[in-house]
């Protein structure tokens, strides 16, 4: 099996770290790293349901990238006066993914907002964000239980995510920026702890991909996500 | 095999029509219908490349929905002062999908914009838009060849799209609005004429989906898209 | 009497068609054509009065043009982030004109929005929009009466509109795009079925116009509008 | 002939004053008053043609109202983040009206911007603005001639404007705010020094107006504007 | 003591005039001039408290500059679609400064908005605005007392402001535009009638300033403001 | 001398740390902490001068606060569509302050942007940002010298900042959030390594402050800043 520029095997994740309580004010605050990709995920609890829903709570996400998280400075979205299409797409994905493990009715009249801000980018920021945001969400829910804001845990199962792609003709797991820019096709996969799919988003970059390529990518993603699920569990125990 | 509310079998498309030259000014102008979903797709040729690229042309898309294309009136995005995250996500998907069958270098210094405006919505507007926009694009490219703006055809292959989902526990093809709102998971698939994948976007709505469900949905989509590819061919011959 | 490039006599309208129920969801939906100008006019009924008014309903309009309704593609206003001054001027005109035949008190706590979207433009889009929107409004009001939302018909009289101008030195009715671009002065006239004026908007383009020119234009407009009033009546009977 | 609340006869203008050089920096600066309506009109000369035109200059206008120019405070448009439809309609009207007396080719590569800011409003702000802006424009053009920026005077003729309407059943000239709010129909007329029409904008407020009413209003406007033309001449001589 | 280009001594204010009731509609309307700097300050009383405060009233300010108040035309902020950072900074300063002399609880459920619009600029517009706005505020409060909207005067003390700076190496009072553009450091000072500080904002332009320079500037400002306080008093007696 | 809630003496800074190379991509990247206030300051070098300046480079700053840097979640400015007045005021202050120690001509055709993003807020974010941004700027300039982009060091001197205020009746240095919210007056001071003033911004919150209070605050600030200057030096040596 040929190795990658980074020396990783095709099915190898980058070193992952999940640091809880990175900042003080948020009910959940996690700095997640997938190699050089570092995302600060905070979970904020507010006592209000969404405007368009009479009962039950809500879980939503916002995503941002610090202007110099990347190789060359990007323009600040607040100064631009709007969030890019890419930003909106990512934050909608994060929110949808996390809601897949929450019983919103059991959340009562609360909204939890997951802010995922990329401090440093090296590929896979959205999948790192989902993986870290789950831990921040779990911390926030535990804080709510402790304060008596809710009676029973609204979380069922876990959610984690990883990217996969075909790079140099071979399917690989957890692409870094160099692999991502050069890859022929790119897929983000979100799963739960039972290995079931929550989101699958695959895009052909260089050439359209065949069904057997798709199958290989899904296998890689499944194995990678089950490792991430385990790392989340350990982090939450610590 | 249980039938659907609409009387269709699980693997049956809605009646599809592809009407070329619906309006006069555009280089390509197609009214595509998937059942009651009707989208006007125009292709406009402009002599300018994209600002961020020194050589070669570009293909891009914009998407809109007339305020009363839907059951209840939606707010006009132009009056709101911005396009929603959903709109941006869809138009990025359409543009990316169509570019997958275009040799941009062979397009010279031209930009082709595909405007997909939904006149009436009944589910599957983005997949109908991609399917119709391909035909408008082909007409525009033929007009360019005829005028001598380009020497060789920059299109290779065809692109079409369809939605699939699990509704009432069974995998079904080409969901209408009623099926789409109630479905447990929903996937949009874009393929080329060789049955290869260009985009796969699946989202769990009610519950996470198992690998075998995913496989069944991909099978349905593949069969449906190959029919749409054939319908595009016939429309272009007419 | 010299004829026009189009072969029409100076006092001749273009072929006019008024197609009701063009789309399904709206309470009124009319595709109106004045020659090659085609505007989709929908009337949407919502149960809310305007914020700034304690009692009675409201009738308002929004106007848009699909990017490639015109010879060269115009930028999409939703993508630009704002409606142009021209768009706002036109939609204010349409709303004001239609309100001139509505007893707003009799409309109860309802707002009717007339969306006029130009699918294809060849001059006179605002006057075609007013003429078509009246028919959509009449259909919506009839639907409300049938559902028992209102007791008595809030419409009194009819409203239609046409453009007139001086082209090649001679006053002509219902200018198409070629005549409109080259004309020396241009006037939009809105009248009711009694031949009384609701709006008169005349602009000198090439040279200021004399009182007798103004008089000739008003005569042409009056005759033209009375024909349109008749065509509306026939369409509503069909 | 019944008199008006203000004591004026139906064909009587309010006291008009035209004060030149009201501020120091602008090439033309005029404070115009029609009774209690006071508008500061400045003309600014900039050495640049419009972006969309290869040759010749341009004359354009912007309009604003100080928040407390009116009885109750209006919101500041700069704080709102956009100009209202009304503001845009008015500034387009002012620009178009003034251009009707300018030979743009003779203006060379210059743009003259007429800023019309209402310090105090009592009806007829747009017509006062046009009347005052003409004088500011004439001053700016004279300054350009003196500096040698242009060789020949690009102005031909004069432009002035007034409102007319039907109030209490009778046609009256130059409506103040009280008359304007209560009037049945309202018309703004712009003419040149030869009594020819540049713009006619009439709107039925209470009821549609008959042709003979329209004729009476146009007669009143013509007589009023010829007086304003004379007042402009005197102001420019002073 | 060397004199300034303007002939003023270093500690000399420009001629100051405070003209009350400059416009009719506002509860307070003051045209303040500091030499060629002329600012129209209106105070508008509205019966509503601020949204974020349960009890007591509010005093706030907005600032604007007419496009041609300056040597070269500036772009109109309403047309730009936003207020510049400079504008926001100034209006926040004016509001904060005026609130320093108001007992907001005694203001009941009223909001007073101070609109400060610069008709002509020659340096020191923000300090002239604060000085004039105080007088407009006092007039508005008196009108409220007279109407019985409030029982006791919510104003305590007076507020005025002036700029100071180091120009040509010497500390000077009340800089005009020429001095301001060329100055090495620039300070805006707001004080009350007891000579106490409400705001001090000093900025080094050319070089950092020493403590003794700062002290000299504060002395100049104090003496200048006490004169302005006296001029406000006289204006309010008139 | 009474102590503060935090146990600090009135003239005592919070523990300060300056961590260089916190992220990888930026030419300078500093995480600065003043107690619990943590700001990430990056310096980005781009090869372009400012649009409005023919020669020489530019130094500018942008400021942001992560939504949950604070006790309760603030709205994300990118989602709001604009930067608040407070944000703009702060980033203008940071940019101006840093430019006070840069010879812009010696910077050639480069722009350095200082992005200051608050990860956690506990009072004094703008002064911490200035202090940290100086170190990031020094690192970026050194990188430019090493790469040969510039020949001589454009920095002269150092810049640091601190807040001071009157809290519980006594002048104190470096206020934390609790002191800041309750303080009677609040001043931000920016100085260079020679103890000269670059910016002084004082605001009375509860009551106007006397000259001797101002003097005491300036003394405290001077002593505090000289300590910060020393800490910057040590960090840059490390």
Automatic annotation (TrEMBL), chains A, B, C, D, E, F:
Superkingdom as given in the UniProt entry: Bacteria
Reactions catalysed, as given in the entry: tRNA(n+1) + phosphate = tRNA(n) + a ribonucleoside 5'-diphosphate
Keywords: Nucleotidyltransferase, RNA-binding, rRNA processing, Transferase, tRNA processing, tRNA-binding
EC number(s) on file: 2.7.7.56
Single GO biological process annotation from the record: rRNA 3'-end processing
Binding positions (phosphate): 86, 124-126
Keyword 4Fe-4S: no
InterPro entries membership: ExoRNase_PH_dom1, ExoRNase_PH_dom2, ExoRNase_PH_dom2_sf, PNPase/RNase_PH_dom_sf, Ribosomal_Su5_D2-typ_SF, RNase_PH, RNase_PH_bac-type, RNase_PH_CS
Any Pfam family: RNase_PH
Reported function: Phosphorolytic 3'-5' exoribonuclease that plays an important role in tRNA 3'-end maturation. Removes nucleotide residues following the 3'-CCA terminus of tRNAs; can also add nucleotides to the ends of RNA molecules by using nucleoside diphosphates as substrates, but this may not be physiologically important. Probably plays a role in initiation of 16S rRNA degradation (leading to ribosome degradation) during starvation.
Subunit (UniProt): Homohexameric ring arranged as a trimer of dimers.
Protein name (database record): Ribonuclease PH
